[in-house]
Write a structure and sequence with these properties.
The chain is of the alpha+beta class and 390 residues long. The protein has helices at 15-24, 29-45, 106-119, 147-151, 168-177, 192-206, 210-222, 264-268, 282-293, 306-313, 325-328, 376-388, and strands spanning 7-8, 50-57, 60-71, 73-77, 82-85, 92-93, 100-101, 228-229, 244-245, 255-256, 278-280, 297-298, 301-302, 321-322, 339-343, 347-352, 357-363. The two termini are 19 Å apart.
């Protein structure tokens, strides 16, 4: 079972065959239908332009559903307070295989890459980060931060730095010179800098850039051929657009972002960053979920040992967030061991080893402009899946 590849309800013809598949997967078809209906309603609420939802249990993808538009708007009109639509013939419908800018879901891949190096003995989770300092950063002060604290967001580092205001050659020195706001290990402060510092550590310990580590250690072995940094221009018709990125609501002036990374710092770093930059599809992310739920193996490939997966997903999580009901809904209820993450562009995934379920909800909530954070639709979707478990 651990090495069984995913099977999808989408391969079946007929409503009754799909319902039988869902029941065999141990999920209630009525709840899954409600999950699809609730996703269909999201564009109308203004939460997103479009969305893809995927839900499964065990090796079975019991629901794959797309709604709305991957590309609909040309810009945001701040004076009118409303979007400017493209000509109707240029709209791109959302599809189940639409590629999304994952934003902070990238952090999960950076965490997996780090645990792979731990298994190889190249990295020690409890070693001071200064032991792995990149010599290109110059003189580095030891603030007592450990690798584990980077992965658990307990380093004390602030949320971010404005790397987009500096030349590329200055980024590394800025990152390594940053002092923590709190004593390392004393508090949880979510920070992109943690994963950027970990990216630098991985470069120094392996001699490989992050995109190569992710490609060679994760996506290629797992057959995730629609997951990568800096997608080629040929992918653009299948990519969900993000923001009309302009000041004052954004940090830089870039216009409509479509097929390029949304995060301003990741953009300044050439599209490859430990905290953001990956693009992927719901099906590819389902493969990652299945791999982790199966203890690190998928098909003929093993990317992590079961003990490493337990470290990643067990409280408080390494890279992953655990027990976060604010976006996991009732999947984070009593007795669960739910783990997952969200992304600023509207992405999220959650998996629960107790029920062997997984949920991927990808939406372009920042198209055409960023909105106040609202994870209630994510929590509602996760609750539907939790209630669907038979």
């Amino acid at each position: 079972m651990a090495r069984t590849r995913l099977r999808s309800v989408a391969s079946l013809d007929g409503a009754e065959a799909r319902r039988r598949f869902q029941r065999k997967a141990g999920l209630d078809s009525g709840r899954l239908a409600a999950l699809a209906d609730e996703t269909d309603a999201l564009p109308g609420t203004g939460w997103c332009a479009g969305a893809v939802v995927l839900a499964g249990r065990g090796p079975n993808i019991a629901l794959e559903h797309a709604t709305g538009w991957a590309l609909r708007y040309a810009a945001w009109d701040p004076e009118a307070g409303q979007p400017v639509e493209l000509p109707r013939e240029k709209w791109l419908p959302m599809r189940v295989d639409t590629v999304f800018d994952l934003a902070s879901l990238t952090k999960l891949f950076t965490a997996v890459a780090a645990l792979q190096q731990v298994e190889r003995g190249a990295l020690d989770l409890d070693a001071p980060v200064v032991h792995y300092a990149d010599p290109r950063a110059g003189l580095v002060t030891d603030h007592g931060i450990t690798v584990r604290q980077l992965l658990t967001h307990t380093s004390g580092l602030r949320a971010e730095l404005p790397f987009y205001e500096y030349n590329t050659a200055e980024h590394l020195a800025l990152l390594w010179a940053e002092k923590p706001l709190a004593e390392p290990g004393s508090a949880h402060l979510y920070s992109d800098l943690n994963l950027l510092l970990l990216q630098s550590v991985l470069w120094h310990t392996t001699g490989q850039p992050l995109d190569a580590l992710v490609r060679d250690g994760i996506t290629t072995p797992l057959g995730m051929d629609r997951t990568r940094f800096n997608p080629p221009r040929s992918w653009r018709p299948r990519i969900a657009a993000t923001e009309d990125q302009r000041k004052p609501w954004a940090k830089v002036n870039r216009g409509l972002i479509h097929g390029r990374v949304h995060d301003e710092n990741a953009y300044a770093m050439g599209g490859v960053a430990g905290h953001a930059g990956l693009f992927s599809t719901a099906r590819d992310l389902a493969v990652l979920c299945r791999t982790l739920l199966a203890g690190g193996a998928y098909g003929p490939a093993r990317i992590l040992a079961p003990s490493s997966v337990a470290e990643l997903l067990g409280p408080p999580g390494l890279g992953f967030q655990t027990g976060a009901a604010w976006f996991m809904g009732e999947l984070a209820g009593p007795g669960s061991r739910a783990a997952g993450h969200t992304g600023f562009t509207g992405t999220s995934l959650v998996l629960d080893p107790v029920t062997d379920t997984f949920l991927v909800l990808l939406a372009n909530t920042v198209h055409p402009v960023r909105r106040p954070a609202d994870s209630r639709p994510r929590a509602a979707a996760a609750t539907q899946l939790a209630r669907a478990v038979l």
